[in-house]
Design goal:
Length: about 220
Protein backbone atom coordinates (compact mmCIF):
# COMPACT_ATOMS: atom_id res chain seq x y z
CA UNK A 1 0.00 0.00 0.00
CA UNK A 2 1.43 3.40 -1.03
CA UNK A 3 1.18 5.46 2.15
CA UNK A 4 3.30 8.42 1.09
CA UNK A 5 2.59 9.43 -2.50
CA UNK A 6 4.98 12.38 -2.32
CA UNK A 7 7.92 10.08 -1.58
CA UNK A 8 6.78 7.61 -4.24
CA UNK A 9 6.61 10.33 -6.93
CA UNK A 10 9.86 12.07 -5.96
CA UNK A 11 12.11 10.03 -8.31
CA UNK A 12 9.64 10.57 -11.15
CA UNK A 13 9.82 14.35 -10.64
CA UNK A 14 13.60 14.14 -10.56
CA UNK A 15 13.58 12.21 -13.85
CA UNK A 16 11.31 14.81 -15.49
CA UNK A 17 13.46 17.70 -14.25
CA UNK A 18 16.71 16.13 -15.45
CA UNK A 19 15.34 15.14 -18.85
CA UNK A 20 13.89 18.61 -19.46
CA UNK A 21 17.35 20.10 -18.88
CA UNK A 22 18.99 17.55 -21.19
CA UNK A 23 16.47 17.88 -24.01
CA UNK A 24 16.50 21.67 -23.82
CA UNK A 25 20.29 21.40 -23.91
CA UNK A 26 19.98 19.61 -27.26
CA UNK A 27 17.94 22.55 -28.56
CA UNK A 28 20.61 25.01 -27.33
CA UNK A 29 23.32 23.03 -29.14
CA UNK A 30 21.42 23.46 -32.40
CA UNK A 31 21.04 27.18 -31.81
CA UNK A 32 24.68 27.69 -30.82
CA UNK A 33 25.85 25.91 -33.97
CA UNK A 34 23.40 28.04 -36.03
CA UNK A 35 21.50 24.98 -37.28
CA UNK A 36 17.77 24.47 -37.58
CA UNK A 37 16.61 23.10 -34.23
CA UNK A 38 14.50 19.97 -34.61
CA UNK A 39 13.22 20.71 -31.09
CA UNK A 40 10.90 23.71 -30.81
CA UNK A 41 10.26 23.38 -27.07
CA UNK A 42 10.02 20.79 -24.29
CA UNK A 43 7.48 20.35 -21.51
CA UNK A 44 7.18 17.73 -18.79
CA UNK A 45 5.02 16.69 -15.89
CA UNK A 46 4.40 14.00 -13.29
CA UNK A 47 0.88 12.55 -13.52
CA UNK A 48 -1.35 13.88 -10.69
CA UNK A 49 -2.18 11.37 -7.96
CA UNK A 50 -5.91 11.39 -8.75
CA UNK A 51 -5.15 10.61 -12.41
CA UNK A 52 -2.86 7.75 -11.40
CA UNK A 53 -5.54 6.25 -9.15
CA UNK A 54 -8.23 6.63 -11.83
CA UNK A 55 -6.01 4.92 -14.42
CA UNK A 56 -5.18 2.12 -11.97
CA UNK A 57 -8.90 1.35 -11.70
CA UNK A 58 -9.56 1.74 -15.43
CA UNK A 59 -6.58 -0.39 -16.52
CA UNK A 60 -6.77 -2.83 -13.56
CA UNK A 61 -3.22 -1.99 -12.44
CA UNK A 62 -2.27 -3.45 -9.06
CA UNK A 63 -0.42 -1.17 -6.66
CA UNK A 64 2.54 -3.53 -6.39
CA UNK A 65 2.85 -3.45 -10.21
CA UNK A 66 2.44 0.32 -10.60
CA UNK A 67 6.09 1.07 -11.37
CA UNK A 68 6.24 -1.61 -14.06
CA UNK A 69 2.77 -1.36 -15.62
CA UNK A 70 2.11 2.40 -15.78
CA UNK A 71 4.53 3.87 -18.29
CA UNK A 72 3.42 7.50 -18.21
CA UNK A 73 3.65 8.53 -14.55
CA UNK A 74 6.58 10.65 -15.74
CA UNK A 75 5.89 12.26 -19.10
CA UNK A 76 7.72 14.60 -21.44
CA UNK A 77 6.54 16.22 -24.63
CA UNK A 78 8.85 17.43 -27.39
CA UNK A 79 7.32 19.87 -29.85
CA UNK A 80 8.68 20.11 -33.40
CA UNK A 81 7.98 22.44 -36.31
CA UNK A 82 7.94 19.74 -38.99
CA UNK A 83 6.99 16.06 -39.22
CA UNK A 84 10.52 15.33 -40.51
CA UNK A 85 11.93 16.82 -37.30
CA UNK A 86 10.06 14.23 -35.24
CA UNK A 87 11.96 11.35 -36.82
CA UNK A 88 15.26 13.20 -36.45
CA UNK A 89 14.57 13.64 -32.74
CA UNK A 90 13.72 9.92 -32.46
CA UNK A 91 17.08 9.07 -34.06
CA UNK A 92 18.89 11.38 -31.62
CA UNK A 93 17.19 9.71 -28.65
CA UNK A 94 18.15 6.26 -29.97
CA UNK A 95 21.81 7.32 -29.94
CA UNK A 96 21.83 8.47 -26.30
CA UNK A 97 23.58 6.32 -23.70
CA UNK A 98 21.92 7.93 -20.65
CA UNK A 99 18.56 6.25 -21.32
CA UNK A 100 17.30 2.93 -22.66
CA UNK A 101 14.45 2.83 -25.17
CA UNK A 102 12.01 0.06 -24.27
CA UNK A 103 9.17 0.73 -26.70
CA UNK A 104 8.28 2.90 -29.68
CA UNK A 105 4.77 3.59 -31.01
CA UNK A 106 4.44 5.53 -34.25
CA UNK A 107 0.94 7.04 -34.31
CA UNK A 108 1.93 9.27 -37.24
CA UNK A 109 2.40 6.48 -39.77
CA UNK A 110 -0.27 4.46 -37.94
CA UNK A 111 -2.81 7.13 -37.04
CA UNK A 112 -5.35 6.20 -34.34
CA UNK A 113 -9.02 5.85 -35.40
CA UNK A 114 -9.79 9.07 -33.49
CA UNK A 115 -7.35 11.01 -35.69
CA UNK A 116 -4.64 11.22 -32.99
CA UNK A 117 -1.09 11.54 -34.27
CA UNK A 118 2.12 11.54 -32.23
CA UNK A 119 5.29 9.49 -31.77
CA UNK A 120 5.55 7.80 -28.37
CA UNK A 121 8.75 6.46 -26.86
CA UNK A 122 8.94 4.68 -23.51
CA UNK A 123 12.38 4.87 -21.94
CA UNK A 124 14.02 3.57 -18.79
CA UNK A 125 15.95 6.38 -17.14
CA UNK A 126 18.27 6.04 -14.12
CA UNK A 127 17.97 8.61 -11.33
CA UNK A 128 20.48 8.82 -8.52
CA UNK A 129 18.92 8.85 -5.05
CA UNK A 130 20.52 8.81 -1.62
CA UNK A 131 19.40 5.18 -1.43
CA UNK A 132 21.13 4.37 -4.73
CA UNK A 133 20.12 4.23 -8.37
CA UNK A 134 16.46 3.83 -9.34
CA UNK A 135 15.39 3.16 -12.92
CA UNK A 136 12.24 5.05 -13.87
CA UNK A 137 9.87 4.50 -16.78
CA UNK A 138 9.24 7.73 -18.71
CA UNK A 139 6.98 8.30 -21.71
CA UNK A 140 8.19 10.84 -24.27
CA UNK A 141 5.67 12.14 -26.81
CA UNK A 142 7.07 13.83 -29.91
CA UNK A 143 4.68 15.79 -32.12
CA UNK A 144 4.28 18.89 -34.25
CA UNK A 145 2.61 22.05 -32.98
CA UNK A 146 -0.45 21.28 -35.13
CA UNK A 147 -0.69 17.74 -33.73
CA UNK A 148 -0.36 19.10 -30.21
CA UNK A 149 -3.13 21.66 -30.72
CA UNK A 150 -5.53 18.93 -31.87
CA UNK A 151 -4.50 16.50 -29.11
CA UNK A 152 -4.92 19.15 -26.39
CA UNK A 153 -8.46 19.94 -27.55
CA UNK A 154 -9.37 16.26 -27.88
CA UNK A 155 -7.99 15.55 -24.40
CA UNK A 156 -10.14 18.30 -22.88
CA UNK A 157 -13.27 17.01 -24.64
CA UNK A 158 -12.44 13.49 -23.51
CA UNK A 159 -12.76 14.56 -19.88
CA UNK A 160 -16.20 15.96 -20.62
CA UNK A 161 -17.50 12.94 -22.54
CA UNK A 162 -15.30 10.21 -20.96
CA UNK A 163 -14.35 8.99 -24.43
CA UNK A 164 -17.98 8.55 -25.54
CA UNK A 165 -18.15 11.39 -28.05
CA UNK A 166 -21.39 12.25 -29.86
CA UNK A 167 -21.18 10.97 -33.44
CA UNK A 168 -21.19 14.44 -35.02
CA UNK A 169 -18.46 15.71 -32.68
CA UNK A 170 -16.33 12.63 -33.35
CA UNK A 171 -16.63 13.20 -37.10
CA UNK A 172 -15.68 16.87 -36.70
CA UNK A 173 -12.63 15.93 -34.63
CA UNK A 174 -11.47 13.49 -37.29
CA UNK A 175 -11.86 16.16 -39.97
CA UNK A 176 -9.94 18.60 -37.79
CA UNK A 177 -7.16 16.03 -37.30
CA UNK A 178 -6.86 15.61 -41.07
CA UNK A 179 -6.83 19.39 -41.55
CA UNK A 180 -4.05 19.70 -38.95
CA UNK A 181 -2.01 17.01 -40.70
CA UNK A 182 -2.60 18.67 -44.07
CA UNK A 183 -1.15 21.85 -42.56
CA UNK A 184 1.92 19.86 -41.46
CA UNK A 185 2.31 18.45 -44.96
CA UNK A 186 2.04 21.90 -46.54
CA UNK A 187 4.67 23.25 -44.16
CA UNK A 188 6.95 20.32 -45.02
CA UNK A 189 6.66 21.23 -48.72
CA UNK A 190 8.10 24.69 -48.05
CA UNK A 191 10.36 23.63 -45.18
CA UNK A 192 13.63 24.80 -46.76
CA UNK A 193 12.16 28.22 -47.52
CA UNK A 194 10.88 28.54 -43.92
CA UNK A 195 14.19 27.48 -42.40
CA UNK A 196 16.14 29.93 -44.55
CA UNK A 197 13.81 32.76 -43.51
CA UNK A 198 14.12 31.80 -39.83
CA UNK A 199 17.93 31.74 -40.08
CA UNK A 200 17.96 35.20 -41.66
CA UNK A 201 15.57 36.52 -39.01
CA UNK A 202 17.71 35.09 -36.17
CA UNK A 203 20.84 36.64 -37.70
CA UNK A 204 19.12 40.03 -38.01
CA UNK A 205 18.08 39.86 -34.33
CA UNK A 206 21.70 39.10 -33.45
CA UNK A 207 22.97 42.10 -35.45
CA UNK A 208 20.40 44.38 -33.80
CA UNK A 209 21.68 43.51 -30.32
CA UNK A 210 24.02 45.91 -28.50
CA UNK A 211 27.66 44.86 -28.87
CA UNK A 212 27.96 43.84 -25.21
CA UNK A 213 25.14 41.28 -25.68
CA UNK A 214 26.57 39.59 -28.78
CA UNK A 215 28.90 37.22 -26.95
Amino acid sequence: MIENWQNFLLPYQQAVNELKVKLRGMRKQYQDSEQHSTIEFVTGRVKPIDSIKEKMVRRHVQEDRLEQDMQDIAGLRIMCQFVEDIYEVVDLLRQRTDMTILEERDYISNVKPSGYRSYHIVIEYPVQLITGEKRILVEIQIRTLAMNFWATIEHSLNYKYQGDFPEELSARLKRAAEAAFQLDEEMSEIREEIQEAQTLFSYKKFLDKPDDEKE
